[in-house]
């Protein structure tokens, strides 16, 4: 009788998960929600941990999508590549908003538990480093913090030694008959990318003849979207850190705000910005 009295809309809802997979089982929520382990009794340490864990989860998806985008460029499949790069840009928007939440923490709140971080620092985020490598910022020194984890070090080394997203884009241009300097195509991909005047002209050709090269024109704008959002993320990171710790050194031996300001000067796709002056 009890079942018959239930509203019709509820009768088909499953409620017995003794032998079935539930939502929590599928997402491994027990594991996920038990991963926040503050080392102090300070209220805001939970916020600090969660914001960084959320950023790491988004970075995991960014790496996943960048891998797809690069594989698609190698196969000259631009439509699925655009879907992946557009997703990366939207992920970045979420990551930018996360800094707004963290900025509700005051200097007093942070300093109350900062000593419990020891030598831990965001500079050691291997997923962030992986993203930078895939976007073309190569610095072999940044492999060193991960030598104690052979599995992570090997994955980072592979990304460090592989062509970046921009390398794959320029190789695609060359395969399509756009003149890209050979010195750029044959460059040592373990070195950070350096601007080349011939590449500026290659992109200028695509922008001037957008109707002829429309998918390559769209590729250029997708790359600009990624860098634009990444720089906005870097800026919000820097300003959030400055708001909370001022000019103090960061944890783990980093220079803090000074290091983050320096990162703002690094461009992933320099010719795509230079070409706007050329047109």
List the keywords.
single chain, 0% strand, 279 residues
Give a structural overview.
- By secondary structure, the protein is mainly α.
- It is built from 14 helices and no strands.
- Helix 4 packs parallel to helix 9 (about 165-175).
- The longest helix has about 30 residues, at about 215-245.
- The radius of gyration is 23 Å and the shape is globular.
- About 25% of the residues are buried.
**How many strands, what sense, and barrel or not for the largest sheet?**
none
Poorly predicted residue ranges: none
| Helix and strand pattern | HHHHHHHHHHHHHH
Oligomer: single chain
Radius of gyration, taken over Cα atoms and rounded to an integer in Å = 23 Å
What is the β-strand count? 0
Structural class: mainly alpha
Rounded average pLDDT: 93
Helix content: 55-70%
Shape, please?
globular
Percent of residues in β-strands: under 5%
Distance between the termini: 77 Å
Q: Count of helices?
A: 14
């Amino acid at each position: 009788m009890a079942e018959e009295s239930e509203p019709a809309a509820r009768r088909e809802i499953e409620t017995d998960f003794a032998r079935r997979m539930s939502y929590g089982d599928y997402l491994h929520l027990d594991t996920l929600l038990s991963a926040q382990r503050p080392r102090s009794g300070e209220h805001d340490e939970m916020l600090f941990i969660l914001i960084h864990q959320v950023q790491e989860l988004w970075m995991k998806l960014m790496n996943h999508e960048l891998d797809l985008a690069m594989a698609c460029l190698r196969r000259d499949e631009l439509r699925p590549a655009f879907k992946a790069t557009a997703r990366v840009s939207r992920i970045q928007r979420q990551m930018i908003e996360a800094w707004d939440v963290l900025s509700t923490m005051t200097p007093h709140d942070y300093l109350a538990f900062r000593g419990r971080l020891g030598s831990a620092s965001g500079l050691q985020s291997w997923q962030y480093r992986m993203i930078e490598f895939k976007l073309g910022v190569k610095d072999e020194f940044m492999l060193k913090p991960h030598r104690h984890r052979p599995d992570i070090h090997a994955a980072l080394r592979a990304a460090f030694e592989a062509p970046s997203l921009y390398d794959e884009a320029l190789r695609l241009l060359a395969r399509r008959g756009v003149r890209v300097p050979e010195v750029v195509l044959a460059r040592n991909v373990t070195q950070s990318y350096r601007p080349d005047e011939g590449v500026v002209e290659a992109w200028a050709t695509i922008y001037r003849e957008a109707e002829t090269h429309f998918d390559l024109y769209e590729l250029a704008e997708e790359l600009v979207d990624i860098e634009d959002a990444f720089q906005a993320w870097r800026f919000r990171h820097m300003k959030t850190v400055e708001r909370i710790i001022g000019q103090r050194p960061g944890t783990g031996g980093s220079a803090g705000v000074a290091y983050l300001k320096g990162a703002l000067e690094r461009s992933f796709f320099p010719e795509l910005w230079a070409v706007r002056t050329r047109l």
